[in-house]
Design brief:
The structure holds two protein chains of two kinds. Chain A contains twelve helices and eight strands. By secondary structure, chain A is α+β, with helices and mostly antiparallel strands. Chain A has three domains: 16-127, Acyl-CoA dehydrogenase/oxidase, N-terminal domain (Butyryl-Coa Dehydrogenase, subunit A, domain 1, Orthogonal Bundle), CATH 1.10.540; 130-236, Beta Barrel (Butyryl-CoA Dehydrogenase, subunit A, domain 2), CATH 2.40.110; 241-378, Butyryl-CoA Dehydrogenase, subunit A, domain 3. The longest helix of chain B is centred in the middle third of the chain and has 31 residues, at 191-221. Classes of the chains: A alpha+beta, B alpha+beta.
């Protein structure tokens, strides 16, 4: 496979009518949503917004109708996703479930799990979190220590997860942990579907980030009992199940639009008057964005055809994070206005928020170092 | 994409474009025999409609030949000839055969004299002019773009070269053409700069793919400190960065090729040429870093590719030219949000 070839998205992928419907919906719903809230991008949380979006049929779009979905293509879902992100809509309440947990349950779950959970995801009612990283297992996922032991009627879980985004409000967690010993570093791992509201002996405590925001949590499992039917997929197949989620997780428009509110603020200021040098920088920013979007849409097209473009997704995420992280530097090189957290001037407030958010962009969802290692091996390094 | 004409070109170039051939070309020797093989295979006509002698393949597929020629460091103007024939055909002129090249004609002055059009002025840094039979260019007469097919034998040439030693000649034009060689274009295609930028962008993407491949092979073979240097994380990260930049270039170039002859082309080609030009900097620099001193020698093939991408990024508009144009369009867009400009710019059936 040629890693540097990204086939164009199929003809007709614009879905202009759908795009206009979403824009009209967002213009109304977010009419009074200020730039500094839009700057939170896909970390903004609103159950109410997610439910309204679902009522329009824009959550669980790709899920089959029999599970409450809308049987639409990955490219239609892409149109809705990018419009939401470009508008800075608060989407995290349904985002993880819609992007990867729902598809995972549909692919690997039991009939009961599918019937009980997936329709509620499509209704925008369920918030999911992902229990992956641990204090001693960040990039090195195979060093996972949290363990599920077989007991009468189910499993007993012990261990600690960290950086678990929105665990404090989530309804469900997809837990990745050890279920056995294995000589193979990738063997003996499994995934569980945990009802966080109904399970006892789970302690969730906040980890406040450097921007003062509470997104992360520490989640401690202390002899936590899970019934047998909480197992998701095959016991011992957790590693390959997680790997098959990555193309969904790493290739979407959230991998290059996280700083978009700052771009809109910057362009609003430069529209009145811009030197040639400023025009050129905006042109460069536009070119990069047009190309990243095309690459990301290409991966959506490949996913739609049932391929697993995990390597291309790693390229999109690596390039996308560089782009999103560069926006504050670019803004500061074109406009001389200090960043002011919570400032009355919306440009200054959005700049402040974005500056403090960008360091995480090349950490979350696979660090830059991990992605580049994956890409290098994909190129055929021995 | 499975493509018979791509397979044909791959075979032809693999068999005939060697390090020796590129060296000889850089020393001034035109690879005429290979030029004849390319013409006999019909590749020069790939972008003209079937009724005018083409293969009847989509434009994006025909333009894919330019990427492949770049991947082989072909020292001949295949991309230029493809474009020249297509532009001539679009004005109703029969493709003349032979080796053609293209030039920006903005500095030419056209004047009607009876049935003829008199053309006067300079053409600068024309690719392969001295090896070509004709230079095809576009210039305005009475506010209408005209395509001009200038016989090289009737021009005064001042030879020059690019970084890779390929002919880049200045030409002084002072001649009259009849309507057999000068015709109005049925609609404006924005001059030769955009079309030239498209082929340079595609060729850069192809050359960068070869540079990445050479660098991966070298990193696998070269042993230092008891292991292949590709085992070192620093080298892996260079290669991953090169692959990302190359993928972005190819995607950008193919996005522009996909919108060839549509209103979206004006903006997609600006994105393509500036994005691949920027990538050429990073990919070239890192390739030399991975290859160490051997890659800095004339003996090693790497320089033929790095010098080509560093030349091509300067031609038919630099990064600065194209980003300024794109930025001006973005900032003056009537759309009230920048995002709408971005989605419009790549939409099928985008507004002009």
């Amino acid at each position: 496979m040629n890693l540097t070839a990204f086939p164009p998205p199929p003809p007709g992928a614009d879905y202009d009518e759908l795009r206009q419907e979403v824009r009209a919906f967002l213009a109304e719903e977010l009419a009074d949503f200020p730039p500094e809230k839009r700057a939170e991008s896909w970390n903004g949380f609103s159950r109410d917004f997610s439910r309204k979006l679902a009522q329009r049929g824009w959550v669980g779009m790709t899920f089959p109708r029999e599970y409450g979905g809308h049987a639409r293509s990955a490219l239609e879902r892409y149109v809705v996703s990018e419009e939401l992100l470009a508008a800075g809509a608060p989407v995290i309440s349904h985002w993880i479930a819609d992007r990867q947990s729902g598809p995972l349950i549909l692919a690997k779950g039991t009939e009961d799990q599918k019937r009980q959970i997936v329709p509620r995801i499509a209704a925008g009612e369920l918030c999911f979190c992902i229990g992956m990283s641990e204090p001693d297992s960040g990039s090195d996922l195979a060093a996972t220590r949290t363990i599920a032991t077989r007991v009468e009627g189910g499993f007993r879980i012990n261990g600690t997860k960290v950086w678990t985004t929105y665990a404090h409000v989530a309804d469900y967690m997809i837990l990745f942990c050890r279920t056995g010993k294995s000589d193979d570093r990738h063997g003996g791992m499994s995934q569980f579907l945990i009802d966080l509201k109904a399970t006892r002996n789970i302690r969730i405590s906040p980890i406040i980030d450097m921007g003062g925001e509470h997104h992360f949590n520490q989640v401690i499992f202390d002899d936590t009992f899970l019934p047998s039917d909480a197992l998701l997929g095959e016991q011992g197949e957790g590693w390959s199940q997680v790997m098959s989620e990555l193309a969904f997780e790493r290739s979407g428009p959230e991998r290059f639009l996280s700083s978009f509110a700052l771009i809109e603020e910057l362009i609003r200021l430069l529209r009145k008057e811009a030197t040639e040098a400023q025009q050129a920088e905006i042109g460069r920013l536009s070119a990069h964005l047009m190309v990243l979007r095309q690459m990301s849409r290409s991966v959506a097209g490949m996913l739609n055809e049932g391929k697993n473009p995990a390597l291309q997704a790693a390229i999109v995420k690596d390039l996308g994070a560089l782009y999103e992280q560069d926006i504050p530097r670019l803004a500061r090189s074109l406009v001389s206005r200090p960043a002011v957290p919570g400032g009355r001037d919306s440009y200054a407030a959005v700049l402040a928020y974005t500056e403090l958010a960008v360091p995480s962009f090349s950490l979350r969802g696979g660090t830059r170092e991990i992605l580049r290692g994956i890409i290098a091996r994909g190129l055929g390094l021995r | 994409m499975e493509s018979m004409i791509h397979d044909m070109a791959e075979r032809l170039f693999r068999n005939h474009v060697s390090h020796r051939l590129r060296e000889d070309a850089a020393a001034g020797q035109c690879p005429d025999a290979l030029g004849t093989l390319i013409e006999e295979a019909g590749l020069n006509m790939a972008l003209v409609p079937e009724e005018a002698g083409g293969f009847g393949v989509p434009a994006a597929e025909a333009l894919g030949l330019v990427r492949i020629s770049g991947a082989h460091g072909l020292p001949l103007p295949l991309g230029e000839t493809l474009i020249a024939n297509a532009v001539l055909a679009s004005a109703g002129l029969a493709p003349p055969g032979g080796m053609l090249t293209i030039a920006e004609g903005a500095a030419l002055r056209l004047e009607r004299r009876g049935a003829a059009i008199h053309i006067r002025g300079p053409l600068t840094l024309v690719p392969f002019a001295r090896w070509a039979d004709r230079i095809v260019t576009i210039a305005a007469l009475d506010g209408t773009d005209h395509v001009l097919s200038l016989p090289v034998k009737d021009l005064a040439l001042a030879p020059g070269q690019d970084l890779a030693g390929m002919p880049r000649d200045d030409a002084e034009v002072d001649l009259a053409l009849t309507e057999a060689d000068a015709r109005p274009l049925p609609r404006s295609i924005g001059g030769m700069r955009g079309l030239g930028a498209l082929v340079r962008s595609l060729a850069m993407a192809g050359a960068m793919e070869t540079i990445v491949k050479m660098s991966v092979e070298y990193a696998n073979d070269r042993v230092q400190f008891g292991r292949p240097i590709g085992r070192f994380q620093a080298i892996q990260h260079y290669l991953a960065t090169m692959a990302g930049e190359t993928a972005a270039s190819r995607t950008a170039a193919e996005m522009a090729a996909d919108s060839y002859d549509t209103p979206a082309f004006a903006l997609t080609v600006a994105a393509a040429k500036s994005r691949s030009g920027e990538a050429a900097e990073t990919v070239g620099a890192l390739a030399h870093q991975v290859h160490g001193a051997i890659g800095y020698t004339r003996e090693h093939a790497l320089h033929h590719f790095t010098k080509r991408i560093w030349s091509w990024r300067d031609e038919f508009g630099t990064e600065l030219d194209w980003t300024t144009e794109l930025g001006r369009a973005a900032l003056s867009s009537p759309r009230d949000r920048f995002w709408h400009f971005i989605t419009d710019s790549t939409a099928q059936g985008a507004p002009a």
